[in-house]
Amino acid sequence: MEMSTAYVPGHEPGEPRIAYDEIGAGPPVVFLHGIGGNRTNWREQLHACAPDYRAIAWDARGYGLSDDYEGALDFAYFADDMIRLLDHLGISKAFLVGLSMGGRISQDLYFRYPDRVAAMVLCDTFPGTTPTLPPKEREEFINLRKGPLIAGKSLREMAEPLAKSLVSANAAPEHFQRLVESVEALHQDSYIKTLEATMRYDRSVDISTIAVPVQLIYGAEDRLTPPSIGKDMQRQIPGAELAVIKGAGHLVNIEQGEAFNAVLLDFLARQ
Description:
Elements: E1 8-12, E2 18-23, E3 28-32, H1 43-49, E4 54-58, H2 76-88, E5 94-99, H3 101-112, E6 117-123, H4 135-150, H5 155-164, H6 173-184, H7 188-200, E7 214-219, H8 227-236, E8 241-245, H9 252-255, H10 257-269
Parallel strand pairs: 3-4, 3-5, 5-6, 6-7, 7-8
Antiparallel strand pairs: 1-2, 2-4
Helix pairs in contact: 2-3, 4-7, 5-6
């Protein structure tokens, strides 16, 4: 299929405006980044999909080129924003590819808008949309991440230690640097809101009722969401497939892009 080699940037014009890149033509594949990311984390995947698919990566509200917003954040707003973006782009149903927080958004969207989801690729993520920690530990995690920022520490100062916790033991310097730059690009106030919202969102779902094809992808060296979580999700989700990719930490699509793309494209081709 003929395609343009350039990204087409755009904004969904609602409030807040949502920024996105797209490339290619065909069935739509939409990429959702993690809590420390933005749409540029998916550049290699967009290029890999573009010959056969309409590949789209967004900046969630308060990230990248998307607008910040007033007031507190309800985690459910992310799925609602994605529906706005799909409507804006004239897409009735899409393949969702979500990493970490993007995987939780994908699951939330599926359970609230099941008719809009053709299949899901869930990467280095937690199951469902309920908190993964008890209340006390949840608040401790939030304070551990936001406390230094409130105290005056900059995202630039926090970027390298955070990136080190997310990559594999032998991560390539250029991959590590991409994660550092991704953290440095966060919008501080929106990031704090997202930390609070994602840890506190509690909407009970049963992932054993997922009725669309699911591909799970985990980095073998992911310490935040280890492959054991993926194996448990595979047992629960009917027909789910699991790929564990060696030499990758939490950002498996960046550290092992070729291996990730091979799994992704094989899965998409079979749907």
